[in-house]
């Protein structure tokens, strides 16, 4: 029998029941079929989304790996610049773009297909405008890092790297919009193919610009920008030419300018929600520069952060799948299907976290060699990986719950949760463990784990206490309030 399509309902509409006239056995079998169908749908979505996210994120990891073989100073500078760029730019673009998870996802579920292209255009306009001041900040990265108390030598190297990274911020903003636009329609395999092609090209571009052009670490930064623009071009061509987007992309419209304030009202809490979490992890690398032996601590914390970010792409893909499933089901008015999607994705996240955490512990003795030839760095990375495994477990759960929050439009309340978890619990704990108890870089990461635990606990409480029927009503109101008559789309 043919499996369920992504667009087909998993759970009957109001008034229908799993319980047939044949009794409880049929109801149980029907329930198992529904759960299995939801698992298949989520894995069908999550697989390509995980691959796409991993491939997009690995671009910066590859660049840092290339730079790491130029020497410890080059690695420290590139790592510091990457962290600074993440704090001041990439996280903001990702956060503001994630507003489309709610807007496009619920509109697609409600079959307001023509609205998706308008939402994406609004997001693109806003993100491009925001990128201009961010580019100016990146141009002065070196001076700003010195003001923050960083080592002048490392700061100078980081400043040069960040200046060559400036073109990447504009491409990254557009990329976030295109990814959310396609994701909300369950169009995920083309995203994976484009990301894969970009990654293969990035290896060649990075090698040429780092080792052959004489640019050194600056070539790695430029390679990031080139590769992000390649990815944007590939996805834009797909949206323009593919029949699968003919109903959702109907061309540019002046209507995109009229709804900008509404988009901004959702984009700001979306950005705050993402940035508060992202900044807390990047804070670890910045604070590592204040520890004894800052070059070692910064290098190891950066490797740890890049490793955590890479494995984070797996639950991030699950969270993106959950966001799509929840927003689509709420948009079409099936709250029970949305609730089932949450239960399934939590089970998948726990399973994934256990498998990945075990793998991290098993490879702890050799993983450091992928980033550095320094024996001191490799030994320190070996100590850090079991701590990262625990962090990944908690981070995986909060990641999928964050995806559920985006699908429902809970960005405001989740922003407050992240503020309390990381900045009242996590960072103060990290400071005490690292600088008062003198545990060093391990203490910084252990403090963030305390914040993660609080975040997961609060997110679970919010999700378990949610009234899904009310959320479906809110989604219906949101879609209708932002709907765009098709006759004004040109």
Automatic annotation (TrEMBL):
The keyword Nucleotidyltransferase does not apply. It is a multi-pass membrane protein. The keyword Transmembrane applies. Residues 1-26 are annotated as: Disordered. Its main location: membrane. GO terms for molecular function: antiporter activity; xenobiotic transmembrane transporter activity. Coiled coil: none annotated. Belongs to the multi antimicrobial extrusion (MATE) (TC 2.A.66.1) family. Pfam families: MatE (PF01554). The chain crosses the membrane at residues 43-68, 80-103, 123-141, 161-182, 189-210, 222-241, 262-281, 301-320, 340-363, 383-404, 416-439, 445-468. Keywords: Membrane, Transmembrane, Transmembrane helix. This is Protein DETOXIFICATION. One of its GO terms (biological process) is xenobiotic detoxification by transmembrane export across the plasma membrane. It comes from Iris pallida. One of its GO terms (cellular component) is membrane. It is found in: Membrane.
């Amino acid at each position: 029998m043919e499996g369920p399509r992504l667009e087909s309902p998993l759970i009957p509409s109001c008034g229908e029941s799993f319980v047939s006239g044949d009794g409880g056995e049929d109801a149980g079998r029907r329930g198992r079929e529904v759960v299995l169908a939801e698992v298949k749908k989520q894995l069908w979505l999550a697989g390509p989304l995980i691959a796409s996210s991993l491939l997009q994120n690995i671009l910066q990891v590859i660049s840092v790996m290339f730079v790491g073989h130029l020497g410890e100073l080059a690695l420290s500078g590139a790592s510091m610049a990457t962290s600074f760029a993440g704090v001041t730019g990439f996280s903001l673009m990702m956060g503001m773009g994630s507003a489309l998870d709610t807007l496009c996802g619920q509109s697609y579920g409600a079959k307001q297909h023509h609205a998706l292209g308008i939402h994406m255009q609004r997001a693109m306009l806003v993100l491009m405008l925001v990128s201009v001041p961010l580019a100016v900040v990146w141009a002065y990265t070196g001076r700003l890092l010195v003001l923050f108390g960083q080592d002048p030598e490392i700061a100078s190297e980081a400043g040069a790297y960040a200046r060559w990274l400036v073109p990447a911020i504009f491409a990254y903003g557009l990329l976030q919009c295109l990814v959310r636009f396609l994701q909300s329609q369950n169009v995920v395999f083309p995203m994976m193919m484009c990301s894969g092609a970009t990654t293969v090209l990035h290896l060649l571009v990075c090698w040429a610009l780092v080792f052959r052009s004489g640019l050194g670490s600056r070539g790695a930064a430029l390679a990031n920008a080139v590769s992000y623009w390649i990815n944007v071009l590939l996805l834009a061509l797909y949206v323009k030419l593919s029949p699968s987007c003919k109903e959702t992309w109907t061309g540019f419209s002046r209507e995109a300018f009229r709804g900008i304030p509404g988009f901004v009202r959702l984009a700001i809490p979306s950005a705050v929600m993402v940035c508060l979490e992202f900044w807390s992890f990047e804070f670890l690398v910045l604070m590592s520069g204040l520890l004894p032996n800052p070059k070692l601590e910064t290098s190891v914390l950066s490797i740890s952060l890049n490793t955590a970010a890479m494995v984070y792409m797996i639950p991030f893909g699950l969270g993106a799948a959950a966001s799509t499933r929840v927003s689509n089901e709420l948009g079409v008015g099936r709250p029970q299907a949305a609730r089932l999607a949450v239960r399934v994705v939590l089970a998948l996240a726990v399973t994934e976290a256990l498998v990945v955490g075990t793998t991290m512990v098993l490879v702890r003795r050799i993983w450091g060699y992928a980033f550095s030839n320094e024996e001191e760095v490799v030994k320190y990375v070996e100590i850090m990986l079991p701590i990262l495994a625990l962090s990944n477990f908690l981070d995986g759960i909060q990641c999928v719950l964050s995806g559920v929050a985006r699908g429902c439009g809970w960005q405001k309340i989740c922003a407050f949760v992240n503020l309390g978890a990381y900045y009242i619990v996590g960072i103060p704990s990290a400071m005490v463990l690292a600088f008062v108890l003198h545990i060093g870089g391990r203490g910084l990461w252990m403090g963030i784990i305390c914040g993660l635990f609080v975040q997961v606990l609060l997110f679970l409480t919010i999700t378990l206490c949610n009234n899904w029927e009310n959320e479906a009503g809110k989604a219906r109101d949101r879609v209708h309030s932002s709907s765009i008559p098709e006759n004004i789309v040109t």
